[in-house]
Design goal:
heterodimer; A: 153 residues; alpha+beta; 2 domains; five-stranded mixed β-sheet; 6 helices; 16% strand; B: 738 residues; Aldehyde Oxidoreductase, domain 4; seven-stranded mixed β-sheet; 17 helices; 27% helix
Chain lengths: 153, 738
């Protein structure tokens, strides 16, 4: 058992974890009850578990707790229903989800992408989201939401 | 209208998810109802099963149908708000709880509005009539002079009214649904047919929405099932020492069922991967590569049956001047939910509470009573949102796994399937093969049409898709085959004099099946609508104009003409064969539901065989539209998922196991392949609402294959339309050098 100090959404949280290989995703969801990041594949293939660490979109299902260093932002830290982040507000405005299970990954990947890319084209947005899977077919709305957020910034 | 509805949800003491609405994000406490009762009447014939008029002026709405990402959660309150005459933000809603919500049947087959919405509307109309009657007594005015609005019964000509709450707060209507209760006219609607935002989006975009996967109960353990390496394998031995290094894990073995539970989720998952076990026997009767041959020949055939018949095909066929025959194949596919199935069960003291993303909580509560041998009424299933399921995925399997494990350890257990569990073990859309024989008479008119379909015989009176773990654990459940109605739609709704659909029964499916969105229809429409294109070419007609020649129903004609207009259809007979193509397809879904016209542009790279769908247009008539943006969203999803299923998806398997078990071996569409969409909704406020959840997926593969023919002169008759398949077809037809 080892103790890890995580910097999550601007707070330092200490958690005791037995296995240093335990993915950050499980610690966020079960220990910190930050359930916005979702388990989708555990393989880094779908993006549902995406969080932002030091400005980069990261797959928390492939991030061992022992390697989870830096400033971690989860979707809960990005904004709230009352005070949504520009990307979240754009997803709400475009009604850019069906089941919404992929939404965490779409929002977090888009947020990290837009921090680096101002005024992207539709093609750039699609490329940025190419490794995020949506099964319901909300892609068109998600791209529109990302472009709306980009223009709102 | 663009009401800014925000969602507030909270979990009541029992764990039922209550969704309420509030204007401008500021939910005021008075709009939120108190915690719901522990149980109430769920008879779908009783008005009281649908709603309670609350003392605070709100309405608690109970829905047996659930929101699977479809927009049901906004559409149903739109209906009730209008029919009752109450602002939508005063309605809170509970979905799919067997002890609280009416038993309205499963949420499947696009029936949420078509049946559930219509039924709830009638309950609301009955309630409104009753409120007006009570109001008449209170106000001393004749019923005919009263109406409802803003949660009050009011004189039509103006003046003081009386609130619903004052008439009936927290007490019962004690009325059966009255099929004759007067309904509001569409011209009176404030919400129906207008865009009202979904209440769940703010929570979904900010991480506060509670999915099944996010729910937790006090003292629960985490469980995983360890499924056999081959379907049907027997468990010979388990080596518990193989997981001795993982703390706090308990192995549960019941006959051939193997599972683990642990306090920590990661430990349960690690143990499930690491646990060594010996399995004997088992396997699959064929392989994905040989499935078509298996279905057509090696499958022990039951007997043939003529499913549908019009005119006399056998008599007319010899006189048919121009005869065409083609064989088609559709592979086995997965529901491939983005979130692998998850459930929590608490089975103790002779009763069970199951939190589940099931599409049919009432049905599966009954099934679980049988499997767990519990008395009637002792299983409560409570719906929480899962990832989109598009038919029946693994949710009910995860739920029974949790129940089996919970009963074994005497504590609540949460089971989370892995990605591989979901893609390997979710019940599949079955492989399909069919042959169409059709022909033109001497005048170039279609005279004959016969479809042969090789399909499994569906088990009569099978109450539900059999679940995996009860079978392994030797627990009682009825066995049998369920696929949904995959044999509908192989003869078209076009006006053709001699048609028949012939079923050839195969004895079994390679693996367990269940309905997958628009069961069978992608394959059947691919066959029907590509054959229509072949006939058009043989008759020397433009494919779109040719179809119109065989349609009489004005709504069919409207939808196809609208499609042509949307897409900018230009008539042509011969294919372009220059790598760019355009295709069209049409369906009157199930012959009596939604009308869909679809046109599609593709580009085909002749060297690689890769197809790119660039633009899709769809005209859609599902009768009265309740929630236009939800309908549009469903159509978008149908098109994109349909392109995915037509171009990428196949559950490959060998004689041992399913081998497509992750997003690399089971590919689905990603952003770069998503086409531009152009959708037109045709609203028919005077018609009954029919389904929007699946009709628009049915013609996708057909329109795509027709567009590829236009681009290349090559007919694709087997899905998925992979580059290899396109290349092979081009070589075969001599349009590309080998």
């Amino acid at each position: 058992m080892a103790r890890y100090a995580l910097d999550v959404n601007g707070q330092t949280r200490s958690i005791d974890v037995h296995d240093p290989q335990e993915p950050l995703l499980y610690v966020l969801r079960n220990d910190l009850r930050l359930t916005g990041a979702k388990y989708g594949c555990g393989l880094g293939q779908c993006g549902a578990c995406t969080v932002i660490i030091d400005g980069e979109a990261v797959r928390s299902c492939l991030t061992p707790i022992s390697a989870a260093k830096g400033k971690i932002t989860t979707i809960e830290g990005l904004g709230t229903p009352q005070k949504p982040h520009a990307v979240q507000a754009a997803f709400i405005e475009e009604q850019a989800a069906q089941c919404g299970y992929c939404t965490n990954g779409m929002v977090m990947t888009t947020a990290a992408f837009l921090d680096k890319t101002k005024a992207p084209s539709s093609g750039q947005v699609r490329d940025a989201l190419a490794a995020n899977v949506c099964r319901c077919g909300a892609h068109d709305r998600i791209v529109k939401a990302a472009l709306r957020a980009a223009s709102a910034k | 209208m663009n009401l800014s509805l925000n969602r507030r949800s909270f979990l009541s003491g029992s764990g039922a998810l209550v969704v309420a609405y509030a204007m401008n994000g500021s939910a005021s406490a008075q709009n939120l109802p108190g915690a719901p009762p522990k149980s109430r009447g769920v008879n779908a014939k009783q008005v009281d099963s649908y709603f309670v008029i609350k003392a605070d002026g709100g309405v608690m709405l109970y829905s047996g149908k659930v929101d699977l990402g479809t927009g049901h959660r906004i559409a149903l309150p739109q209906i009730v708000a209008d029919e009752l005459g109450i602002p939508i933000e005063r309605i809170a809603m509970i979905e799919g709880d067997t002890h609280l919500t009416p038993d309205q049947g499963s949420t499947s087959g696009s029936n949420g509005m078509m049946r559930g919405g219509v039924q709830t509307r009638q309950a609301a109309a009955t309630a409104r009539a009753a409120l007006i009657k009570l109001g008449a007594q209170k106000l001393g005015l004749p019923e005919a002079e009263l109406d409802t609005a803003e949660g009050e019964v009011r004189p039509k000509k103006g003046g003081a009214g009386v609130t619903f709450a004052a008439l009936l707060a927290d007490s019962q209507f004690n009325l059966e649904l009255d099929p004759k209760a007067p309904r509001r006219k569409p011209s009176e609607y404030k919400y129906v047919g207008k865009h009202v935002r979904r209440p769940d989006m703010p929570g979904k975009a900010t991480g506060s929405h509670v999915w099944m996967h996010d729910f937790a109960v006090e003292g629960m353990l985490h469980g995983r099932s360890v499924y056999p390496p081959r379907p049907g394998a027997k468990l010979a031995s388990v080596d518990e020492a193989s997981i001795a290094d993982i703390p706090g894990v308990k192995v549960v073995r019941i006959k051939d069922y193997l599972g683990v539970v642990a306090e920590r989720e990661w430990h349960a998952e690690k143990a499930a991967r690491q646990l060594k076990a010996q399995w004997e026997g088992g396997g699959i009767v064929t392989t994905s590569a040989e499935a078509q041959t298996y279905l057509r020949s090696s499958g022990p055939r039951d007997k043939d049956e003529v499913a549908e018949k019009k005119g006399d095909f056998d008599k007319a066929w010899p006189e048919t001047a121009k005869k065409l025959t083609a064989d088609f194949y559709w592979p086995m596919q997965s529901h491939a939910s983005l979130g692998p199935s998850c459930a929590i069960a608490d089975v103790r003291d002779g009763e069970a509470t199951i939190w589940t993303a099931s599409q049919g909580t009432h049905k599966f509560a009954e099934a679980f009573e049988g499997i767990l041998q519990l008395p009637k009424g002792k299983v409560r299933q409570i719906y929480l949102d899962g990832a989109g399921c598009y038919g029946m995925n693994g949710h009910d399997d995860a739920a029974i796994d949790a129940a089996i494990l919970s009963r074994a350890v005497g504590k609540p257990v949460r089971v989370q399937w892995s990605r591989a569990d979901e893609l390997a073990w979710d019940p599949k859309g079955p492989p399909q093969t069919l042959t169409i024989e059709a022909g033109l008479d001497k005048e170039g008119k279609i005279s004959t049409w016969r479809a042969h379909m090789w399909v499994p015989r569906l088990t009569p009176k099978l109450p539900n898709v059999p679940l995996v773990s009860p079978q392994l654990a030797g627990l009682p459940q009825m066995q049998g085959i369920s696929t949904g109605s995959i044999s509908i739609g192989a003869i078209p709704t076009y006006d053709i004099p001699n048609m028949e659909a012939v079923l050839h029964y195969v004895k079994d499916t390679p693996v367990r099946t269940s309905p997958l969105r628009a069961p069978g229809k992608l394959a059947n429409l691919m066959a029907v609508e590509t054959m229509m294109d072949e006939l058009a070419l043989a008759a020397g007609k433009d494919p779109l104009a040719f179809r119109l020649d065989y349609l009489k129903d004005p709504r069919s004609i409207d939808v196809l003409k609208k499609t042509a207009e949307l897409h900018g259809w230009q008539a042509r007979v011969e294919p372009r064969r220059d790598g760019k193509g355009r295709g069209v397809a049409f369906t009157h879904y199930k012959g009596n539901e939604t009308y869909v016209g679809m046109a599609m542009d593709v580009e085909v790279d002749r060297a690689s065989g890769a197809i790119r769908v660039t633009r899709v247009s769809c005209a859609h008539d599902c009768g009265q539209i309740i929630s236009p943006d939800s309908v549009k969203s469903q159509i978008e999803g149908c098109i994109i998922q349909g392109v995915s299923r037509a171009m990428f998806e196949e559950t490959r398997f060998d004689r041992e196991r399913i081998t497509a078990v992750d997003w690399s071996s089971y590919q689905v569409i990603t952003f770069p392949d998503v086409p531009a969409l152009n959708i037109a909704l045709i609203d028919r406020p005077d018609q009954r609402p029919v389904g929007a959840g699946e009709a628009a997926i049915a013609p996708v593969a057909a329109a795509l294959a027709n567009a590829v023919f236009d681009a290349t002169g090559v007919r694709l008759r087997s899905a998925p339309f992979t580059p290899q398949r396109v290349r092979a077809a081009m070589v075969e037809t001599g349009t590309r050098a080998g």
